[in-house]
C-alpha cells in the first residue's frame, strides 16, 4: 500500500468575513485554523506526518495575510513536522509589506514564498516587475520554492503564470499550485507545456489539488509514457480551501500504490523540503 501523504501546500489562519461576489459577509473556509495547536490536531487526525504551511489568503485585505506570516513561522518553530512559507505580493502598493516579509526569508523553517495574482497584479504587468524580481531574487538567495496560485482565466491563468516559469525557473524552483486549477490549465500543461518546461531544464513543480477528475489520471499516464516528471508532482491538500480526504483519494486513485505513488505522496516532498 502507498505510504501516508506529506502535504506540500496548506494554510493557517482565520480570515475576516467578506461579502464575496456581492453576497453577505461569509467565511467559506470553515476548516480554517486560528492556532498552531488546532493545525497540529488536524495533522494528527489525518495522519499527515509533515506539511508546508502558508498564511491563509483570499480577501482583498493584504495586511491580513501578511500579518499571518508570524503565525506560519510559529507553526514551523513549534515542530519539525511543519515547514512554512511566507506570504508576499507582486503588487507595487504592497511593496513595503513584501519587503518586511522577505527580510524573514532566512528564518528557521522557512522553505517557500507564496504569491498570487488573485488579489491584483499580473506577471505581464510592468508595475509588478520590481516586486517579482525581489521575490525571486530572495528565493534564489535562500534556496526557497516560490508557490504561485494558478486557475483558469485572468491573471492566474497558466498563460500568465507561465511567464514566471519562462523568466525565473532556470534558477528558482516554482511550484504551480493546483496544476492550472481547471480544464484549460490542465489540458495546456499535460498536453505538453509542463513536460516541455522540464525538458528545457526549468525547475518547475506542481500538485493536483483542485484538479478536475480526469487530470490526475491523464497526468500519471503521461508521466509513465514520457518517462519524465516523476519527481515534479507533490500531494497538496490546500486546506482549508481544499479537502484533504478528497484530494488524497483522488490522487491515490490516479497513481495506485507503486513507485509513482510513493514519489508523489512522500519522496518528492522529502527531496524538496528536506
Describe this structure in words.
The protein has 274 residues and is of the alpha/beta class. The protein has 10 helices and 8 strands. It has helices spanning 36-46, 62-67, 69-78, 95-102, 129-142, 158-168, 183-199, 214-226, 244-255, 259-273; strands spanning 7-12, 51-55, 82-87, 110-115, 145-149, 173-177, 204-207, 233-234. It has an 8-stranded parallel beta sheet. Strand 5 (145-149), helix 6 and strand 6 form a beta-alpha-beta unit. Helix 6 packs parallel to helix 7. The two termini are 23 Å apart.
Q: Could you give a short account of the major beta sheet?
A: 8 strands, parallel
Rg (CA only) = 17 Å
Overall shape: it is globular
Q: Which strand-content bin applies to the residues?
A: 5-15%
Structural class: alpha/beta
Write down how many β-strands occur, each being a DSSP E stretch of 2 or more residues. Answer: 8
Low-confidence stretches: none
Amino acid at each position: 500500500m502507498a505510504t501516508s501523504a506529506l502535504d506540500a501546500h496548506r494554510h493557517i489562519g482565520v480570515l475576516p468575513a467578506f461579502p464575496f461576489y456581492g453576497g453577505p459577509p461569509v467565511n467559506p473556509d470553515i476548516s480554517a485554523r486560528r492556532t498552531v495547536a488546532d493545525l497540529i490536531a488536524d495533522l494528527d487526525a489525518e495522519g499527515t506526518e509533515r506539511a508546508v504551511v502558508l498564511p491563509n489568503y483570499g480577501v482583498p485585505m493584504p495586511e491580513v495575510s501578511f500579518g499571518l506570516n508570524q503565525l506560519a513561522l510559529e507553526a514551523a518553530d513549534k515542530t519539525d513536522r511543519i515547514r512554512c512559507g511566507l506570504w508576499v505580493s507582486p503588487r507595487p502598493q504592497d511593496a513595503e509589506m513584501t519587503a518586511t516579509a522577505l527580510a524573514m526569508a532566512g528564518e528557521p523553517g522557512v522553505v517557500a514564498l507564496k504569491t498570487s495574482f488573485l488579489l491584483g497584479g499580473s506577471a505581464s504587468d510592468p508595475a509588478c516587475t520590481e516586486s517579482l524580481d525581489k521575490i525571486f531574487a530572495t528565493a534564489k538567495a535562500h534556496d526557497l520554492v516560490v508557490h504561485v496560485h494558478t486557475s483558469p482565466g485572468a491573471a492566474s491563468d497558466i498563460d500568465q503564470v507561465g511567464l514566471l516559469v519562462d523568466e525565473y525557473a532556470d534558477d528558482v524552483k516554482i511550484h504551480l499550485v493546483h496544476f492550472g486549477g481547471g480544464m484549460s490549465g490542465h489540458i495546456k500543461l499535460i498536453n505538453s507545456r509542463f513536460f516541455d518546461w522540464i525538458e528545457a531544464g526549468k525547475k518547475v513543480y506542481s500538485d493536483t489539488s483542485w484538479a478536475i477528475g480526469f487530470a490526475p489520471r491523464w497526468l500519471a499516464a503521461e508521466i509513465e509514457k514520457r518517462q519524465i516528471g516523476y519527481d515534479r508532482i507533490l500531494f497538496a491538500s490546500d486546506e482549508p480551501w481544499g479537502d484533504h480526504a478528497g484530494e488524497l483519494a483522488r490522487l491515490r486513485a490516479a497513481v495506485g500504490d507503486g513507485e509513482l505513488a510513493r514519489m508523489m505522496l512522500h519522496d518528492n516532498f522529502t527531496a524538496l523540503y528536506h
